[in-house]
Amino acid sequence: MKYIIPAVIILLVIAVFAFIIRRKHNTEIERLEHEKHQIQNKPILEEMTKVKQLNMNGQTEEMFERWRNTWTEVMDVQMPKIDVLLFDAEENIDKFIFPKASKIEKEIQVLISSCDEKMSGILKELEELIGSEEKNRIEMEQLKEQHRAARKTLLAHQYSFGDALPALETELESFIPDFEEFDKLTETGNYLSAREIVITLQEKGKEFFPKLHEIPTILTEIQNKIPGTIHELRNGQKEMEESSYYLQHLEMTKKLEEIEAELVDLKAAVVDLQVDKTIIRVEEIKDEMETFYDLLEKEVLAKKYVDQHKDHTASRLREVTTVTRAVSAEAAYVQQSYRLPEKEAEIPQSCLKELEDLAKKFDLLSSRVEEEQSAYSSLQEELNEIAEELDRLYEEQDRFADRLKNLRIDENKAREKLDELKHILHDTDRMLQKANIPGIPEDMDVRLEEAEEHIYVAMQSLQEVPLNMTLVDNYLEKAEACMEEVHKRAKEMLENVLLTEKIIQYGNRYRTSHPHIHARLLEAEEAFRQLRYAKALEDAATAVEEVEPGALKKIEVIVKEEAWRT
């Protein structure tokens, strides 16, 4: 039993494995049989029957014989051979001869692939042939209809085509040999060759038939419309020149002559049926014509502008010159009392110099208008430049005149500010004198003297003639900053003095019970008498906070309330 059981197991495994492989081969055989049936079921005969309805001559006959021979070989030779191989493969599978079965299966696959390729090739060629015949018939009928319509158009509208008519007729006649060749090939069964003719004629038709609509239009442009436009432009140019317009800068005469010469070449190109490039060039010429109209209109509008604004600009020039001279005189008078920065002082004379240049420029423009030898578009640009410069100079003079007017206002404001600073200095000094304090610290005296000195310097600068307001403003700014700082420090010092007194009074309650607090408060009182108020506040506050934390804030609230009531 020890040897039998393992042997049985091994045999069972081998048997299972063998049956699995056998099943796999059977599946492969079924697949191959299915592919064989698909090849056999391809509708070759049905499609070949359709071919018989065509002209069985030439290419069609040759192809039909080739397809029939191929189909016969596949069905009568290859398919039986495949059947035999399938039978052999099944026998080997039943006998578990799998290697040989695999070899046969590969051989069958090669044969099936070859047969499928041949049959698919036949179907493709059949489809191409039958499709070619149908397409040829439909598309050739369309081409012949277009050809007939073209012939009618040429006969009915010969005059519209002008000298291009012979070339068009020749081109139209060139279709006929191809039509005849197509019919011949179709009758002899050469449908594929006939297809090539159809494709060639379609390309030829796409290029030719549109010309029947384009040529009359383009000839009308070349022979009538553009020459008419040139005539109108020349008449317009002549009338404008007779009305004193200068148009030589446009070079219209030369350009119009060049266009007229080019029209001859363009017409010759149309006669040779070179239409596409001619159409493009004609459109460009039409755009050039429109440009000439725009340029002439621009000159008309420019003349109207110059006529309307020339006198106004002359009047504006006189006005700005008068204003500038008045401002210059005012500046000279003001400078007797006030000192102006060098750049500002030069403004009136600089503007007068620019006005002189503008006057010369305007005189030259006026003479050019009288001579009628300049384009009005150019004169308009110059007139606009002069007007813009006049506006700029006027605005500059206006700002400068306001500056002169503001000098007196600035002086009065400066004197008012100086009086205000003097009043603040006086109030600060009186506030310190009236305060119940042992004395004023030396550093505060120094600050007061510094503020007084700044005020004095500002006051002296206001006495100078001519008055330099820039310098005055600078001195006043320094004096104001210094005075504000002194007044602020004085208020802070008096508040600290009051706070120190309140803290010492509050701390008296702890003198008996806390000897060291008594000593600290005595130091604070001594610093207070020595006018060291910051030191006194620090000592007193430290002593009281040591005994009663938070007392300082409580005292500060009391002091602020008293100050508010006061």
UniProtKB/TrEMBL annotation:
One Pfam family recorded for the sequence: EzrA
Topological domain spans for side Cytoplasmic: 22-566
Transmembrane annotation, as ranges: none
An individual GO BP term: septin ring assembly
Intervals, Extracellular compartment: 1-2
Entry-linked InterPro entries: EzrA
Membrane topology according to the record: Single-pass membrane protein
Keywords: Cell cycle, Cell division, Cell membrane, Coiled coil, Membrane, Septation, Transmembrane, Transmembrane helix
A GO cellular-component term linked to this record: plasma membrane
Coiled coil: 123-153, 249-276, 352-424
Lineage: superkingdom: Bacteria
Subcellular location: Cell membrane
Chain's role: Negative regulator of FtsZ ring formation; modulates the frequency and position of FtsZ ring formation. Inhibits FtsZ ring formation at polar sites. Interacts either with FtsZ or with one of its binding partners to promote depolymerization.
Assigned protein family: Belongs to the EzrA family.
Protein name: Septation ring formation regulator EzrA
Gene name of the encoded protein: ezrA
